[in-house]
Amino acid sequence: MASGWKPGGPTGGSRREGGRAGEPLRPDKMSTAGTADAIARAKAGDVEAWGEVYRMHAASIFRFCRRTLPAREDAEDATSEIFIKVKEKLGQYDASRPFPAWLYKVAANHCWDTLRRRRMRQDLESAEAEGLHLEHPDAGQLEQLISKRTSQQVRAALEKLPPRARMALTMRYYAEMEYEEIAEAMGLRKGFVGVVLLRARHQLREALERGSG
Amino acid sequence: MGHSDEITCLLYLEGQLEKSRAAEVARHAESCAECRQLLSVLESETRALQQAMGEEEEVLPARLSRPATSAPVPWAWAAAGLATAGTYWFWTDWVGPWMATFGQAGFGQFEIIRLLFFSGVFWEGWREMLTLLEGMAGVLLVGGAAALLRRMRRGAVTAGILLTLLGGPLLLPPSTEAAELRKGTATIVVKADETVKTDLIATGESVLVEGTVEGDLIVFAKTVTVKEKGRVRGDILGFAERIVVRGTVDGDIRAFAKIVEVNNKVGKNVMAIAENVEVGSEAQVGGSVLAGAANGRMDGSVARDVTLFAKEFRVDGPVGGDLWFGGAELALGPKTDVKGKAKYTGPKQPDVDGAAKLASPIEVVIAKRERRNKFLTWKFYLNQALQWGASFLFGAVFVLVLPAFWRESARTSGRYGPSLGVGVLALVALPILALLACVTLVGVALGVGALLIYPVAAYTAQGVVGTWIGSRMLGEGNTVAELLGRLAAGLVVVQALDQVPFFAFFLLYSVAVFSWGIGALALTSYGRLRGEAAA
Fold first, then answer.
1. Is the Cβ pair A70, B531 closer than 8 Å?
2. A-chain residues within 8 Å CB-CB of B49?
3. Which of A21, A64, B212, B365 has the highest local Cβ count within 10 Å?
4. Which residues contact A101 (CB under 8 A, 6 or more apart)?
5. What is this model's ipTM?
6. Is residue A189 part of a domain?
């Protein structure tokens, strides 16, 4: 029986501790000390400093939008709109908190608003009512399904998910947002975030199965 | 304790369980291989997700390489000023004079709309059909359809419902209470002893009225003839190659044709747009006459004003009101008797017979054709600037209300082929659909409405193409301010090309810009519908 898992404690919420090994380092995870200075100067109205902040984070925010919104054009538009918002709101940013976390919060709110405006959120009303399979899944089968898939296949499957599921997964596993932040952005109870994530995972598994079949 | 369920395992891994509960789960997993495996699988799923999402498979698009700015730009003020001036110019130079002219002919101010829809020919039928109840039912139907569309966003369903909504009225049998509809390929005749009690709408090769039509006569035909004994108690609205009215009409005549001939009593006004207009000596028009023609003559009597736009026109009869002429050659015969003022605007003196009676000498305004190079006059540039302002104002409204849609449309313009193709299709299909709607009574308002879209569409198309050209010149714009900048710059190019002094080029160019822009708009709208459906 395969079991790589060692009991030793939960592993979630690793963003604040920096990047994981073996994963491409994202720009927003690089020297937070260096950005703090740039942000402070940008706050004071330094155009060059703002450009620096932008260059450091534009790619990761674009990818965030790309993961959550249906079309590339939407993601492009959203990225520039998010940074315009961020620039306007920079005065409200509390420098004692990590900048990427705040940035993702603004991005999440913006993207979720975009989806809501387009009425893509209809699955929201029905989600709570629909039952979730809470019984023990077949772990062996699941392992087979996950270990065989490439990142590219996972991304393709993600694109097929309903907006709400994509949004939740992106917020948690790309932006590494806390449950409270996700709940706030999506207008959910905190206790419901786990259910939404698990449901999204189930949908992803279904999409992966369909993709292979 | 028993096995942990999947959600508990997930919450445990994500650090969302209370300490005591987490410890319980960990303790259980130590002794339970099944739960250990589930935890392990969930964790690798998390890692797979993080890896898949974190990978940079796409580079940052070039237009996002530098931050967008939302700072107001000084030219926005200049543009706003020009836009206001442009609107003012458009109103005073075009709308105002035309309204005044129509007013002289008995179509004052908003009279046309009132005539068309409320008291004129079109309303007669509507009044019977659109009772309050039916109106409300219609609103409910449209509301229901809209709600349905929101739920079922599949493209095919949307298209199907829209087509049904559009086509439905065409299929409905027109109410016999309101109007009689006669269609045919050959001649349609209202016989001498026959009386049509309601309005008559007739389409065919030729339409012949020898009897009586109690209501209005609305015709689309090659030739339309109301014989000497024939009588129309309402109005005549005709679109034909040749419209000849030798019988009596108690209401208005509105004719659009190649040849229009009126030679009997007309209770109200005559409006004729035709190559050749003839108001015969037997004609007695109770109201006014408004004619736009290449050439024509008027020997009958007119109780009120006569307004003529023509290359050549001869008047030889009594006019109760003013006589106004704009064009080239005007001749006033010996039987002319103008009770009001007479005014001529054109390149040379009108030919007035010595016996012609005029209440006051004819006012002559000689408008010589500008021979000077128009590019050297400051007025030309002022006009261009003001026209630019008007176009810009129109585009700016769109940019401000629907910036993302506008940007996308401009981008779609980059796909010339499909845009042009769809645009040409729209250009051809719109009038056909409008005409189709018009031939059935129910669709008249729909048809007229569709035709009214034309000028709006023309301006919008120019704006879309302008924005695209602007984006090619200045790079893609992100913010509203940048979009407005592209629109402004692009419109200058669009307008400059409009000045190439060959008519064929001008015509082709106008059609191309129109089709191109409309095609891009249509494709974008379609894409949006599809995009939303797919999501």
1. yes
2. 154, 169, 173, 204
3. A64
4. A15, A177, A181
5. 0.85
6. yes
